[in-house]
């Protein structure tokens, strides 16, 4: 993959300076057009290289696991918790992602649900 990216930069197809003026989906489209670069990789580029504030990688298994852990007491209606909560987290989805990853890193997600008794949670 690195070879393909380097080749695209040499060809002038990729200009890292231009990414700052592009919206997130433009960057994802451009990066995923390169062999070996998928959506998850492009989203990580948005978060960790470009510092974008509102990126949520729906394909990230860790984020999905952590969101299910955090909202285990809430009925998801068959939808993933990431999809269900995404609108509430805007425009700071990246920050939420970082906290969810940290919950995994600290072993909280593996330790089990925060609250097992659904009657203890407020109904909205």
Automatic annotation (TrEMBL):
Keywords: DNA damage, DNA repair. Signal peptide: none annotated. GO terms for cellular component: cytoplasm; protein-DNA complex. GO terms for biological process: base-excision repair, AP site formation; DNA alkylation repair. One of its GO terms (molecular function) is DNA-3-methyladenine glycosylase activity. This is HhH-GPD domain-containing protein. It comes from Paenibacillus nasutitermitis.
